[in-house]
From TrEMBL, chain A:
The lineage of its organism: Eukaryota, Metazoa, Chordata, Craniata, Vertebrata. This is Mitotic spindle assembly checkpoint protein MAD2B. The gene is Mad2l2. The keyword Lyase does not apply. It comes from the Eukaryota. PROSITE patterns: HORMA. It is found in: Nucleus. Residues 13-237 form the HORMA domain. It comes from Heterocephalus glaber. GO terms for cellular component: nucleus; zeta DNA polymerase complex. Keywords: DNA damage, Nucleus. GO terms for biological process: DNA damage response; regulation of epithelial to mesenchymal transition.
From TrEMBL, chain B:
Residues 350-362 have a biased composition (Pro residues). It comes from the Eukaryota. Keywords: Cytoplasm, DNA damage, DNA excision, DNA repair, DNA replication, Nucleus. It is found in: Cytoplasm; Nucleus. GO terms for cellular component: cytoplasm; delta DNA polymerase complex. PANTHER family: DNA POLYMERASE DELTA SUBUNIT 3. Its main location: cytoplasm. Residues 156-175, 456-467 have a biased composition (Polar residues). Residues 205-216, 279-307 have a biased composition (Basic and acidic residues). The keyword DNA repair applies. This is DNA polymerase delta subunit 3.
Amino acid sequence: MTTLTRQDLNFGQVVADVLCEFLEVAVHLILYVREVYPVGIFQKRKKYNVPVQMSCHPELNQYIQDTLHCVKPLLEKFCPGWAITVSPAAVLGPGWEPAILSSQPGPLSPKNDVEKVVVVILDKEHRPVEKFVFEITQPPLLSISSDSLLSHVEQLLRAFILKISVCDAVLDHNPPGCTFTVLVHTREAATRNMEKIQVIKDFPWILADEQDVHMHDPRLIPLKTMTSDILKMQLYVEERAHKSS
Amino acid sequence: MADQLYLENIDEFVTDQNKIVTYKWLSYTLGVHVNQAKQMLYDYVERKRKENSGAQLHVTYLVSGSFIQNGHSCHKVAVVREDKLEAVKSKLAVTASIHVYSIQKAMLKDSGPLFNTDYDILKSNLQNCSKFSAIQCAAAVPRVPAESSSSRKFEQSNLQASNETPANNELTTNGHGPPPSKQVSQQPKGIMGMFASKAATKTQDTNKETKTEAKEVTNASSAGSKAPGKGNMMSNFFGKAAMNKLKVNLDSEQPVKEEKIVEQPPVSVTEPKLATPADLKKSSKKAEPVKMQQKEKKCNRGKRIELSDDETKETGNVKKKRRRIKLPQSDSSEDEVIPDSPGTYEAESPSPPPPISPPSDPVPKTEPEPSSVKNSSGENKRKRKRVLKSKTFVDIEGCIVTEKFYESESCTDSEEEFKTKTSSGHRSPAMTVKKEPKEERKSLKKGAAALGKANRQVSITGFFQRK
């Protein structure tokens, strides 16, 4: 197992910061567009030089921030050359995806701790009606040498924001009284790292239930895909066929 | 055929790609004029509505017209959804324009996505943002980078010239001298060149002399108008006293005044002044006393500026000005005569007191002056004072000769006062050395006699106090 250098940690921190910022904006925008909460609690803010909608409810904002704060250390492991040798696959429990995908991937096939970040919208019966899945992977060639890297990434993230804004056209209306939650698909080793932060932040994470994760007969609607030098991400929506039932 | 193509394009953008198609975005994407893009969108909406296709379209319109609010009429421009179009139109007194702004499948809750749609495409077409626009100006042509850098320099020079043109206009109105623009433009260059290089100063000084002769009348006539303008600049650096000096110079010595006025702009520039102090000495002698005054005014320390004997006459007026600055203490100091105190020092201390330094023949005139100013202030400040010291040696004849000379020392006001009190009782008229009176007279003439006493007293008492 290779050890992380300082440069790798800084790179990972940069990517984690960028991702967490974007995920925070995306969660707020999803809640606004899908009318999970009343429109009145949202106010227009500016991010990536474009107007976005952000909640001004303090508890909601704190919940979203704490959630992403716990996810951030997992995203910081996002670095080149992080070759892992893992133990055989082990299922943590119901509700988790197979935590470890394979054993001993090569040194040139890096893995990160976070596979997906999912924003799940639940109806009154706590059954998922929609899942906005942010699938995060490393690009094939990881580099930070480009001068216009961040501006290019900003442009791509702006496109994600725009796609979320117009996702109403391709999705059915949600039933009233919906709630939401956030799921993180990760590895077992990563959960141990998360436990430290959970204790510090007093924000416990629990294993997801089967019914929260799996959706019966979902409809897959791709929204946007981006590939940059530091990040590869795609956004798609899993929508339940009959939302009202 | 062409109509079909663009309609298919729009249909692909809206229906297949689920994009927000604004007229501006369409204009840049298809490379057509904005008015043509608006017409395209309108045709597409009309055809789709006629076809009654399953695809649901949401259209936004841009409405502009005169709007009366609180009795005031204003021109209002608004982007409204299709369902609110009629309501907005009814509020307008006169509807000037209505056209399709965007077409999209999703129903927009706010205008943020519209801005987001146009942001990237405008950013990528910044160089030719008005290429397909209906708002154009023939004079608005982008500059070449080389031209832009030269234009900046030209603008800077114009700004400098515009600052100088008021003075030029005054000269032209008076109708004296050569063309003022050349003079004024040459003067700063000449002065700046004087500060920059030694060789340039000599040639420029000769030019200045010729110019000063021609300008004497003009300066005298325009003194009133110039002085306030120059005075503001001077006062910022030197204060009112310097301004008074300049006015006196204008009345008395016009060549000197001319150089002062000419040198004021560069004096305001501290770098050239500080960079070449040697050049100041090599420049005209008339300018030196003025600069010396200005330097003294700036810093309270008594700077020693050596003046040759030839300059004594020229600095007579300067002395007078210095006296004005230094208030009455300088006058009182001139009246005192101190012949005897060196003898007392010799009698009490036959061995030469430490430390002894050789006498300095060109005694600077300005040394005691700043210290008197400090005494008048009554504050305990660190300053340099001329202290009388003695040096004993055997001359040719075999006599033990004690020479008295003044040497600058740093001390505080409190020490000086104490020394003056303690040394008052030690004075005696005895003079045992031939050379002493001459040196004393030389030194006393040039500075405050009280300070001379105090200096001598400082040396003796200071010696005792230190023990």
